[in-house]
Amino acid sequence: MVLGVSLGGHATWHCILHDSRISTGVIVIGCPDYLMLMKDRARLSKLKTWTETSPPGSGFVGSADFPKHLVDAVDAYDPAGVFLGPIAGRTDETYTREPTAEEKQKLIPLMAEKLCGKRILNLAGGADKLVPYAQGAPFLQWLKRAIATDGWFKNNDIVLKDMVFDGVGHAMTPAMVKEAVSFMTESLEQAESRVLESSSKI
């Protein structure tokens, strides 16, 4: 079980995907799509690699502000990179369309390895300007569609609870604490129930 806030929230996404020992993750004001978050910050900061290229932002990825080694790390470990593919081949349509049959052949075993049996709680501030919910929303919507009851990756014992708190900025509020404690308690109770059930069969 892991819980992280802000940068720790980003790290929690990585932990839940890349550490098989972890079955529950609580992300507080974090983002599952580092590329989208950094592109938004580059735009707002008016970096030259954003403003002095045509179209704006086309020179950001691979520049000194977002160098190749960072691109490679995001492709390998970031949730959006793991499931949506390399940054170089990712477009707005990647987030909205259903994967092709060929893509599903690769995604289904990958998602089974990374997500089956896992519980994820994502808590975000609706007024968060540092880590805006909007930057992670396209990936979250993609994942929700995939694991929905009528999705192409349904019935795989995955829980994704996504909550946005209106008017909340970049902070963990008492209401978020309450949701996190409830979610983690539920996870522990389920784990205990499984252990007891397993013991009764011995």
Describe, in plain words, how this protein is organized in 3D:
With 202 residues, the chain is of the alpha/beta class. Helices cover 52% and strands 11% of the residues. The protein has 9 helices and 4 strands. It has helices at 7-18, 34-45, 48-51, 68-77, 79-84, 92-96, 101-115, 133-147, 174-200; strands at residues 2-5, 24-28, 119-125, 159-165. It has a 4-stranded parallel sheet, sandwiched between helices. The radius of gyration is 18 Å and the shape is globular.
* Sequence stretches where pLDDT stays below 50 over 5 or more residues: none
Structural class: alpha/beta
- Share of helix, binned: 40-55%
Number of helices: 9
**Radius of gyration, CA atoms, in whole angstroms:** 18 Å
Query: How are the strands of the biggest sheet laid out side by side?
Result: 1-2-3-4
Mean pLDDT: 94
Largest sheet: 4 strands, parallel
Shape: globular
